[in-house]
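For homework, think about our next protein:
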Amino acid sequence: MSSDTARIDNVQRRARARGRSAAGSVAESLAFPLAVWAIHLLLTQIPATLAYQFGNFRSTQGFGPKSGAYGGILEPLGGIAGWIAEPFRHWDGTWYRLVAVEGYAEGGAAKAAFWPLYPWLMEFGAGITGLAPETVGYLISNVAFLGALIVLYRLIGMDFNAEIARRTLWVLALFPTAFFFTAVYTESLFLLLASAALLGARRGEWLVAGILGLFAALTRSSGFMLLAPFGVLFIQQYGMSPRRWFPHVVPAALPVLGPIIFGWFLRANGRSFFAFAEEQWQWNRFSATPWRTIDCTIRGCREEVRQFGGVRDSYIKPIDWGWPGELLSNLNWRFITSSDFRYRVGESHILEFLVTVVAFALVLVGLKKLPLYYTAFIVPPLIVPLLTPSSVNPLMSMPRFVLPLFPLFVMIAILLRGRKLAVPLAVGSSFLLVILTMQFAQWYWVA
């Protein structure tokens, strides 16, 4: 038995010994996540509604509302949905709406890049309620985030204690890009399904874990990667002898069916079986090594990138470190709120780079502090985007991709033991959350 396996077995035994104290009472396990969820909703909904209703949309580069799927501009939702859901349906939200309305058979092939469970639920909910699909998506995201917080409180309490679980929920809910949990995006649904699948696997309930893992693998491509933490937990529970694996290994392998089912469905609708991967080129993605991706981010580079009209030699701009100095030289409201400055901040790549560096630093520190299955859960989804960078931004969407990777936030919670550091960071992170939520609501790029 390896030292890592022994360490995790010890963690499991300690978690069982803690028992009731780890997760607290049933009332607390519901009330605390509900309180965190409510604070998160207030910090995202109020700024988004105010910015969307009374602010000015992005005008730089002539995009704004045309930044959605195929440049289409959606009709106003009207009523309360226009105040609540409409500010959160931007960017990829327009794509999920398009899939919910049209399916995969009609229109352009780029829709195949968006995995099906979330738009299927949007379509189903719209059909039975009469609400707009994006309104249904908004409701799904927010309910799923509450469910995810409840599940995470239980799961983290099993592996650590209630204090770490509570702190993790705050770190996650107040993270600067956590508004994506409120938006018409898959982050909330995937976090709920993945964490619930891991909780089931952690308890040895492999049929439940496998089914939830399959649903997660139909929600986004990284759901398939649940096979890594599943494998760690399975070997811990059943050892290395294949004779002990059956029949539990069958449901443990269910996430592998996610890409197969989606590929079969795409093919049945006139697309290629692997269209979900092939259509990524429409976001200017290309293949590279992780170190090449980082080098392109820091210093810029030239790459052959497939685009409309064929393969083109593209220049990838490096990080723009200039705007912080320019901000210090122009500390006035007019400059800070100008469309040019806000656009430059969003396109500078600084946020993407910093989040990526911090994420990998937390992985390294977590090798000694986190259960091995936590590390197995976060490493593959962090590596894959570095293998498929975009010429628009090599680390595009990384501040969003890290959100469902809850062990990163557990690691932050472990490091933030003292109030002297935790409270200022919570205030600063909440401030950034409000600012970035407003950026998103007014069609500026965030992640």
